[in-house]
Specification:
By secondary structure, the chain is mainly beta. The protein is built from no helices and ten strands. 0% of the residues lie in helices and 51% in strands. The strands form two sheets. The chain has a six-stranded mixed beta sheet, with no helix packed on it. A hairpin with a 4-residue loop joins strand 7 and strand 8. It is globular and about 40 Å long. 30% of the residues are buried.
Length: 116
């Protein structure tokens, strides 16, 4: 099990930016792929962005391409999600997890609320 802790969410006006952090507690993330996901009440948790273990490959869902950037700092055991040009439809609880998720637990997530 890899325990991951999300932070950095908040309330922001449309067009603004936030940077989310995903920190590993205990073991390193060095050899693990990591993804960001988001969920709104009543809907499934959706993939947002992913990064491979070395940081050489990144993946994004279409709705965030060009606005969000995923990156990692392996020595700090942290993966980031820089979110720019935020839209109200980006409002959700954001989670990170290793990929593939397998049986790894989900953290508490961090709430992002974008108002117009």
């Amino acid at each position: 099990q890899v325990q991951l802790i999300e932070s950095g969410g908040g309330l922001v006006q449309a067009g603004g930016s936030l940077r989310l952090s995903c920190a590993a507690s205990g073991r390193t993330l060095r050899n693990l792929n990591v993804g960001w996901f988001r969920q709104v009440p009543g809907k499934e948790r959706d993939f947002v962005a992913g990064i491979n273990w070395s940081g050489s490959n990144t993946y994004y869902t279409d709705s965030v391409k060009g606005r969000f950037t995923i990156s990692r700092h392996n020595s700090k055991k942290t993966v980031y999600l820089q979110m720019n040009s935020l839209k109200p439809e980006d409002t959700a609880v954001y989670y990170c997890n290793i990929v593939p998720i397998g049986s790894n637990s989900w953290g508490q997530g961090t709430q992002v609320t974008v108002f117009s």
